[in-house]
Amino acid sequence: MPKTVFPRDFAWGVATSSYQIEGAATEDGKGESIWDRFAHTPGTIKDGSTGDIACDHYHRYQDDVRVMQSLGVNTYRFSIAWPRIVPDGKGAVSPAGLDFYSRLVDALLAANITPFITLYHWDLPQKLQDVGGWNNRETAYAFADYAEIIANHLGDRVKHWITHNELWCTVFLGYSMGVFAPGIRDSKIALQAAHHVLLSHGLAVPRLRAAVGPGAQIGVAPNIGVFYTHSAKLEDQQAVRRIDGNMNRWFLDPMAGRGYPQDMWDFYGEYVPDVQAGDMDIIAAPLDFLGVNYYNTSLIMDNPDGDDLKIKGVPNPDLARTADREIEPQGLYLALTRLHEEYDFPAFYITENGAAYDDTLSPDGRVHDVDRTAFLASHFAQAARAMEAGVPLKGYFVWSLMDNFEWSQGYTLRYGIVYVDFETQERIIKDSGLWYRHFITYSRAALPEPITKDQQLLTE
Ligand code: FCB
To answer: What predicted TM-score, i.e. pTM, was given to this entire model?
Structure first.
């Protein structure tokens, strides 16, 4: 019997997010989000595109569930568009919005696919941005209300909930570098926004737990950076420590109950956020799992002339590349083992991992994305290695189910294991998707079937 490290109940899934796939930007009473506004602002998106239609998933969700079924996945991570549920961010709730996600959940359950819901994957209601967005403390309370509304509606059927996707990207790409919505460039605002995002997470966790009831599994999905030092020089090592503090520890330490890391608090100086009494206890709400979004490593050196963090990322000459990143499967192992050693989370899921390549449709009607298959296989092996080293890893979500609107890169990067023809909206499972289906089947088939009562009787 071949031995496999992935247990029978391992979650093999695919992931997406609302703005990247849904389209139907103004339908059924949906409110405007900051990504609607941002993408429609000239100069923000590489190919000048928007998510107005995207994969038209809002109208094609049943077909997409069928595609997932043929991929053989047993889990699906998707996000809820807050402005579909509460169009103005707070106040009136849209029954049509609730109904859409309810129908999606029912279709998934009928297909034996377990839904994992992300509450915030960057599409903040524009009405909240008009009064400061994440820089306004009120947004944290509005988020907790919205979380409770949707959990009251779906919590009877959905047990797995993720508060935030990639908190660092929300605040630093959105409020400090301005390359993501809402396009603000102000480091002081970004750190205050980070505090409110963390606070919103902590406020939402107990309310989700109460609304979902027994069996609730609640976590968060930060992007995890793995950084290599460019040299053994002390300055470069300290630069690595700073970027790690900025991207990883600034978020993980508070959620793990340790407060903000002192070295970064000192480093940020006058930029540190306003923290009210009791906030850090709220943020430390116990979690059931940590989601890990992992894509690549970065080679870092000290850069005294740089902005804020005084660091510079340099290309790693040893690594091959996808269309947009360096490939380093070992980084996934390093991330998982480090998180397990340093933080006390009961379980882990890889909530995102995947690759973009220049996929083309071949004359035979297929997409021969052998590079993506190799990418996934090598990362799965590192996940297995981490499990053998004792990391309680429970699942793996490939980013992404299908090609979609890749934020500021528009439709120029294809991350799907399913190809989307954006003219016709046809979906074609890429070779990597066929391989994933084979892999999931095989990793289960390799396990002995549990002996049923009837079989036991027969053998007695
Ligand atoms: C992550 C995002 C996801 C997608 C992938 C490629 O940072 O969470 O929405 O854009 O990158």
So the answer is: 0.96
Q: Is the Cβ atom of 172 under 6 angstroms away from ligand 1? A: no
Residue 294 Cβ contacting ligand 1 at under 6 Å = no
Q: How far is the CA of 416 from the centre of ligand 1 (A)?
A: 11
Sequence letter at residue 419:
Y
Asked if 149 and 86 count as a contact pair (C-beta separation under 8 A), the reply is: yes
Contact 36, 25 (CB under 8 A): yes
d(CA 113, CA 153): 19
* Centre of ligand 1 from the C-alpha of residue 312, in Å: 22
Atom of ligand 1 nearest to the CA of 413: 6
Active site residues per annotation: 166, 352
Q: Relative to the CA of 407, which ligand 1 atom is closest?
A: 10
CA of 403 to the centre of ligand 1 (A): 12
Residue 302 exposure: Cα atoms within 13 Å on the Cβ side: 11
- Residue 211: partners with Cβ closer than 8 Å, 6 or more residues away: 148, 151, 152, 155
Domains of the chain: 11-442 (3.20.20.80)
Residue 17 Cβ < 6 Å to ligand 1: yes
pLDDT tens, position by position, for the chain (460 residues)? 345 689 989 999 999 999 999 999 999 999 999 999 999 999 999 999 999 999 999 999 999 999 999 999 999 999 999 999 999 999 999 999 999 999 999 999 999 999 999 999 999 999 999 999 999 999 999 999 999 999 999 999 999 999 999 999 999 999 999 999 999 999 999 999 999 999 999 999 999 999 999 999 999 999 999 999 999 999 999 999 999 999 999 999 999 999 999 999 999 999 999 999 999 999 999 999 999 999 999 999 999 999 999 999 999 999 999 999 999 999 999 999 999 999 989 999 999 999 999 999 999 999 999 999 999 999 999 999 999 999 999 999 999 999 999 999 999 999 999 999 999 999 999 999 999 999 998 887 655 555 555 544 444 3
